[in-house]
Structures are given as structure tokens and as C-alpha cells.
């Protein structure tokens, strides 16, 4: 139980750091999400922006689900994506990230065959 809670806390803190870092800039170059049973996830934020041309609003959104726009305050993902959320398919940060990241990776698999879609391709145990 402690490992699960530690993993969730690590993920939430990582997302909080990431969210605040994105405000007013392009955000951090690389983000590592620690914890979880499956291992850490290292996300190359800069590569997604620069090499793949992904705009902020394709991943980040406001509480009303409007896409991120320059100057918009970015909330912590867990502020909405938590056990109190009515949508049970998105009621955790893990579920929201899996839905967003995996669906995007699957959609671009033909153009980017190395886009990870399986657990071990993103999650690395230490």
C-alpha cells in the first residue's frame, strides 16, 4: 500500500512541477514521472513540441476542457482527475495520461513506428 501511495504521490508531484513549469515558457525539456508498480516514465517534452510539432493545447486544457492557450493558468491534473470526478474513465491522473498519450501514439504509429504503445515501452523499472 505504501508503494502505491508513494507512486501516486510521485506522479502527482511530477505533474504539478510540470504544470507550473509550462506556464509562460515551453516547459521543461524532459520530465520524469516516478513511482508506480510499472516503473518510471521519462517524457521528452521538448521533442514532442519541437520535433513532432505538438501544440500545448493538444495535451493541456482548462477545467472547462478548452485547449490551453498562451497565458492560461494550468491547474494540477489531480485537481480534476481524481476519485471525485464523475467520469470514471478519467478519474485519476494515470487514467487521463494513459488515454491521452496512448491514443495519440496509436494514431501516429504509421508515421512514427517507434511511438510506444505498450507498458514496458514507456515504463522503466530501476
From TrEMBL:
Gene3D superfamilies: Cytochrome C3. This is Class III cytochrome C domain-containing protein. Binds 4 heme c groups covalently per monomer. It comes from Thermodesulfatator autotrophicus. It comes from the Bacteria. Heme c binds at residues 45, 48, 56, 59-61, 101, 104-105, 119, 122-123. InterPro entries: Cyt_c_III, Cyt_c_III_dom, Multihaem_cyt_sf. The lineage of its organism: Bacteria, Pseudomonadati, Thermodesulfobacteriota, Thermodesulfobacteria, Thermodesulfobacteriales. GO terms for molecular function: electron transfer activity; heme binding; metal ion binding. Keywords: Electron transport, Heme, Iron, Metal-binding, Transport. Its cofactor is heme c. Residues 36-123 form the Class III cytochrome C domain.
